[in-house]
Specification:
heterodimer; A: 342 residues; mainly alpha; MetI-like fold; 69% helix; B: 349 residues; alpha/beta; Rossmann fold; four-stranded antiparallel β-sheet; 12 helices; 11 strands; globular; disordered C terminus
């Protein structure tokens, strides 16, 4: 086919284009493009709170991942009761003999009262367990929420009606009460009453139960987004060219949904960290020999009047982590959605 | 009328949107009769203009032809093949031949895809591999629509409205279609940009021999672009004719009223003030359209007959072949002075 001769409109359009170019050219040269993601990244880099929060969050993830390595270099582990081999570490009332909870060059964060475990490695492994469970729960929640929400929004009609009613029911559940009441039932399903519940089962049940109550909010959010997006003309344009529903969902809709998904996920993860710790504190989550943020705080609560240092480390680290992650979530939202002003 | 073997043949096309009501069990309590029995043909390479005021079913007709909506009744044939209720798989071979240009250039391009991806998308979906690769084809298409081919890696937000609409045109052209349904392609654009885009479409039509169904509410643009024009009112075609016939010799009162509302560009003090037909009242609700002729509630000629008997769309005496009018009391066949209607976007701009 022959391209038509340049229309008489072309010269007019050129002025239009040159204006466009002069706006673009200062920071992007040639055909380099500014994708929405790159623009968001640039906005994010300018946000100092966000960058600092991101560094803190990354630091926590790094020490969680590298916990075994750090423990090896440090030469301790979270399970050994050092006091049983060296009784001089604890005083007559089983509290750390040294000042500040026994902090020394050997035990950086001191030692635990009564059992005499090393606080530093216990905290490292505790962060590792808690973050692992929270991260897995977040991923599972997002996947379930995306699948259910996008399906309901895209199919609409009866499917949407039923899914929405299920979401209503799940959201109206008092989930904390339900966790406390229901977790023993879950364990009972798999383990005989007298046996010890294996840690992996506790972890998996926690992840599943947390996700089972978490998916509804993200599903509802995405359903609403998809309801709006599927009426947009670019979806119709894809349909006119014969796109399959799969293609429309994955190529047309999902790229437009990453913003709310990322924002939700960054706000969800710290909530799960606290929820998991709360459950451990209440005794229905991870239990004692396994290091965990919540377990540690639970132990600390038993002797904080005598040995405040032991409570300080897990409490403070968790506050810092959750605060940083929430601030990060806010910054990510601001970067991705410049129109939303707090 | 069109050739014996039209590209697109629409007959009795109907679309009723059900209205659900009632509690607790919802049931259909009525229907919005958006499109009610349309008959028209589009010949190969021909441009049919579809005009009418807001809410008369123009856009619905466009979406029915492209099968974005399921018709309630009637048939749509493309090259003799009935596609009225064809499924997505059955439509696959035809999809590349019927394309659409959308009204809002800000909503019709996916903000998360580059221009190259947007234009290559139709080729990807239909598994078309042009010689020289898809990227080369995308560059060629960008050149055809008057954009810089180097911009294929950019995102829609980096373009202006007129440029975006050009991208939409390039996407529609990507599959070498035979028919393009243009749903008010310029009404969202600035007047200065409208002319450019209309000229681009006209060149595309002439050079590539693509048939158009051009939906618009701007009579001047339709006059500039379309060889044949159909006037719609409340879901029905009231008059369809060749361009010059329709603009020079409108027979339906509604067409005449529409034409009299076209603003005049020339100020001529000597000319007698032309008669401006003012329609009173509102367009009736398509949920409960008037009996008989749908225009009768606002027509100054309406009688008993109009209320009882729906006028058929036929060739009335004094008309050229192919000039069909649905009216019991057509206007007399006088010719409107040419100078009054001698405006198209070029002379206006």
């Amino acid at each position: 086919m022959t391209p038509p001769t340049p229309s008489p409109a072309a010269p007019l359009e050129v002025t239009d284009e040159s204006v466009e170019k002069s706006i673009t050219s200062p920071d992007s040269k040639g055909s380099e493009s500014r994708s929405p993601g790159r623009l968001a990244w640039r906005r994010f880099k300018r946000d100092r709170t966000g960058v600092i929060s991101a560094c803190i969050v990354i630091f926590f993830f790094v020490i969680a991942i590298a916990a075994p390595l750090i423990a090896k270099l440090y030469g301790k582990n979270p399970y050994t009761t050092y006091a049983s081999a060296r009784p001089e570490l604890l005083d007559d009332f089983s509290y750390p003999a040294g000042a500040n909870g026994g902090m020394s060059s050997e035990f950086w964060f001191g030692i635990e009262p009564q059992l005499g475990r090393d606080v530093f490695t216990f905290l490292l492994y505790g962060i590792r367990t808690s973050l692992g469970i929270a991260l897995a729960a977040t991923i599972l929640t997002c996947v379930a929420g995306i699948i259910i929400g996008v399906t309901a929004g895209y199919l609409g009609g009866r499917t949407d009606y039923f899914v929405s009613r299920i979401i209503d029911i799940v959201l109206s559940f008092p989930s904390t009460l339900f966790f406390i009441a229901f977790m023993p039932v879950v364990y009972g399903l798999f383990v005989a009453p007298d046996d010890n519940v294996p840690t992996w089962l506790i972890a998996v049940s926690l992840i599943v139960v947390l996700s089972a109550f978490g998916w509804a909010s993200i599903a509802r959010l995405l359903r609403g987004q998809v309801l709006g997006l599927r009426e947009r003309e670019f979806v119709e344009a894809a349909k006119v060219t014969g796109a399959s529903p799969m293609r429309i969902v994955f190529k047309e809709l999902l790229p437009n949904l990453w913003t709310p998904i990322i924002i939700q996920a960054t706000l969800m993860l710290p909530a799960y960290v606290t929820a998991e710790a709360g459950l451990a504190f209440l005794g229905v989550g991870i239990t004692d020999p396994t290091p965990d943020w919540g377990v540690m705080i639970g132990r600390g609560a038993q002797f904080y009047s005598q040995d405040f240092t032991f409570m300080l480390f897990p409490g403070l680290s968790m506050v810092i982590f959750v605060l940083a992650f929430n601030l990060l979530g806010d910054s990510v939202r601001d970067a991705l959605d410049p129109k939303s002003k707090r | 009328m069109s050739t014996t073997n039209p590209l697109l043949d629409v007959s009795g096309l109907t679309k009723h949107f059900p209205i659900k009501g009632g509690f607790p069990i919802k049931r259909t309590v009525g229907a919005v009769q958006a499109v009610d029995g349309l008959d028209f043909q589009v010949a190969e390479g021909e441009s049919l203009g579809l005009v009418g005021e807001s809410g008369c079913g123009k856009s619905t007709t466009g979406r029915l032809i492209t099968r974005l909506m399921e018709p309630t009744g009637g048939t749509i044939s493309y090259r003799g093949q009935n596609i009225t209720h064809a499924s997505r798989r059955q439509l696959a071979p035809i999809r590349s031949e019927i394309q659409m240009i959308f009204q809002d250039p800000y909503a019709s391009l996916n903000p998360r895809q580059t221009v190259g991806k947007i234009i290559a998308g139709p080729m990807e979906i239909n598994d078309i591999n042009p010689a020289g690769g898809r990227e080369a084809r995308v560059r060629e298409l960008l050149e055809i629509v008057g954009l810089n081919p180097e911009h294929f890696n950019r995102f829609p937000h980096e373009f202006s409205g007129g440029q975006r609409q050009r991208i939409g045109v390039a996407r529609a052209l990507a599959l070498n279609p035979k028919l393009i349904v243009a749903d008010e392609p310029v009404s969202a654009l600035d007047v200065s940009i409208q002319a450019q885009v209309v000229n681009l479409l006209q060149e595309v039509q002439k050079e590539l021999g693509i048939a158009f169904v051009f939906i618009a509410h701007d009579l001047a643009i339709v006059r500039h672009f379309s060889q044949r024009v159909a006037v719609m009112y409340l879901g029905k075609i009231v008059e369809i004719a060749d361009r010059d016939d329709l603009y020079g010799n409108p027979r339906h009162p509604y067409t005449r009223a529409l034409l009299s509302a076209v603003p005049e560009a020339t100020v001529d003090e000597n000319a007698t003030a032309r008669e401006r037909i003012r329609l009173t009242g509102d367009v009736p609700s398509p949920i409960n359209p008037p009996s008989g002729c749908r225009f009768r509630t606002r027509c100054w000629k309406a009688t008993e007959k109009c209320a009882t008997e729906a006028p058929p769309l036929v060739q009335i005496s004094g008309n050229k072949p192919g000039h069909l009018t649905a009216c019991h009391y057509p206007e007399t066949a006088d010719v409107i002075p040419a100078q009054r209607l001698s405006q198209d976007p070029e002379s206006a701009a």
